[in-house]
Structure formats: C-alpha cells, structure tokens
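Re: How this chain folds, sequence and tokenised backbone to follow
Notation: Tokens come from a learned vocabulary of local backbone shapes, not from coordinates.
Start of record: The labelled sequence and token lines come straight after this line.
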Amino acid sequence: MISVIICSRDEAKSTAVKSMYAAAMGDAAWEMIGIHDARSLAEGYNRAVQRSRGQMVVFSHDDVEVISPDLPQRIAAHLAQFDLIGVAGTDYLVDPRWQQAGPPHIFGQVAHPWHDGKIIVNIFGAHRPVVENIQALDGLFMAARRSVVSRFAFDAINFDGFHCYDVDFSMQVSRAGLRVGVVNDINLVHDSVGNYDAVWRTFGERFARKWKNRMMPPSGAHAYQVAVIQTDSRAQALEIMNPPYWRDEP
C-alpha cells in the first residue's frame, strides 16, 4: 500500500489534490492522510506517519499535479532501488537553498503553470531518468520506504514552520548512509515557484547552524543555472520531461 500524506489548510486545494491522486493511483492500493491543522509541515507529517499504514509513504504539497502515467508503479520501482526519492535535489549541499550548489550538482525537473494557460518546465538536471547519491531533496514530492519513516522523524523543533523541513529530513537520511535519489520520470506541475523571504531566511539560518559541519564547501559552480522551457500544454511538457535519449539508458 502507498500512503499519501498531505498537509493543507485550504479546503479547495485539499479536495483537488485528493481527486488528482485518486486518478493517478488508479487501481493501486493506497490511502490519503490529510492533516488540516498542522502547526508546521514537520509536525503534521510526523503526526500523519503515525496514522499511515503503507509500506511506501509519499509526502506531497497540496498544489501539485502528477502528469506522468503509472505513478504507483514508478514509486514502487524506485523504492525498490532507493530508500528515499524526490523529484529535485542536489548531490552537493552547500546551502539550505539546495539549488545554490549549481550545476553539475543539481538535478530534477518541475513544471509550473504560466501565463495564458502555458506551462514552463524548469530543468535542473535530467541527463538520465534516475540520479543516485543525492544529499538533499526538495519537499514538493518525496517518497520513502516505511523503514525510513520508522527510523527518522521530521525535525519539528528546529523547523516549526513551513521551510527547510525537507532538506533537513533528506540530509538525515543521506548522512546515515541510506540511498537517496532524484527521479526524473515522475513528472509534476507545481503551482508555486517558492518564496525565499525573511521567514524562509530564519529557517535557513537554523538549518545552517544545525548542519554547519556537514554541508559541503562551495563548489565554484554558478548557482541557479536552470533550463527554462515554455510549452503550450501539459502533454508537451510531459514530452519534454521524458527525452527520447533516455531509451538508450542501460
């Protein structure tokens, strides 16, 4: 069974994302655990894990839309290889804003709604369907084995808001020697591009203090380099996010 965990205070978003996951899961055995009064994402996720029953656990924002097919099969296949997966992250964390590592250390691809019904695709790094040896993940979509969420909890003390819980959790897992990967073949449209405001910086500083002896030195790469492709539809975005040269991968 797959447990999908959503923290949402917005009834309309909660209803929409539940319907979306129901369609994406098809006939697979799954459940949704919704938390509508979370004090923080870390607190809400920890509470939901205790209620969940699945051997695979998905943590998802409430404003995502899965556009790739065969979601449960892809989750199961990737969690047969990895302990924790996400759709964007870095193998060289230099800053709580994981993109700061810059290329060639950032991976993943995420689509976003754009003007006039168009879709933009942000490609951080998608040279192959799966990237191994990841240190930290973005939290818009993560999936873990039950053994991971039984062993590790989200840090609800340091991250008692809605930022940096994700890079912290994935750092816990990767630093313990478990297998963390970015999967480029689970494709999402995310109705948010992030907001790195003063509140975020507060949590970024907490993360930096907690992990100051574990983050990597700057790599010299130029941060925030990303390919941005404008498309006319979700179908076109999906085509771009699954390039034909992947078929040559072993």
